[in-house]
């Protein structure tokens, strides 16, 4: 089992997300360090969003976007894949990112020869982890990269769909694709 220190990835994520933003088309509203006001409030922060401490943002990322969706358990098998899920989950939600993982595993299981199809329930449990273990055992490091690319592809389709169905989101599509895919 590989141990993954998430701290440098959270630091890079916060740096990329930047400081305070209040874009009129952003459905998340006021945001600092990539943490929306709603998420900050749900996690006990009651101050001005312009002053959300970086340490509070780090704790929120670790708790809500790493531990709660059990990406930490994915990291024991594939740190690179877990980091991909963290990054995707921050932007589209951990449940959506988990669904991308489950859908990709289903598409890559060779019609159930490597492991049975998963129910895409958007939760990482023993069956999803078992399927990931089987996939990595059969496909190895090359398969790990293909699985990461498949998750990226699903994320890209998600962004295009958002822009197509809500033109106000076109303001963000370029940045999402430039900074989150690849």
From TrEMBL:
Domain TtsA-like Glycoside hydrolase family residues, every copy: 11-93
SUPFAM superfamilies (alphabetical): Lysozyme-like
Pfam families to which the protein is assigned, alphabetical: Glyco_hydro_108 (PF05838), PG_binding_3 (PF09374)
Domain named Peptidoglycan binding: residues: 98-180
UniProt protein name: Uncharacterized protein
Native source species: Sphingorhabdus lacus
């Amino acid at each position: 089992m590989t141990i993954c220190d998430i701290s440098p990835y959270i630091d890079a994520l916060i740096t990329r997300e930047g400081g305070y933003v209040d874009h009129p088309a952003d459905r998340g509203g006021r945001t600092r360090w990539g943490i929306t006001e709603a998420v900050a409030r749900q996690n006990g922060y009651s101050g001005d969003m312009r002053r959300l401490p970086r340490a509070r943002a780090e704790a929120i990322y670790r708790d809500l976007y790493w531990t709660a969706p059990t990406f930490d358990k994915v990291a024991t098998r594939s740190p690179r894949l877990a980091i991909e899920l963290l990054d995707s989950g921050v932007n589209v939600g951990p449940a959506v990112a988990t669904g991308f993982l489950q859908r990709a595993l289903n598409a890559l299981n060779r019609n159930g020869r490597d492991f049975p199809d998963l129910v895409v329930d958007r939760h990482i449990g023993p069956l999803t982890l078992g399927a990931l273990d089987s996939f990595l055992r059969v496909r190895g490091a090359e398969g790990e990269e293909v699985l990461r690319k498949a998750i990226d592809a699903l994320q890209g389709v998600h962004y295009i769909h958002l822009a197509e169905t809500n033109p106000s989101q076109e303001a963000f599509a370029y940045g999402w694709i430039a900074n989150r895919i690849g």
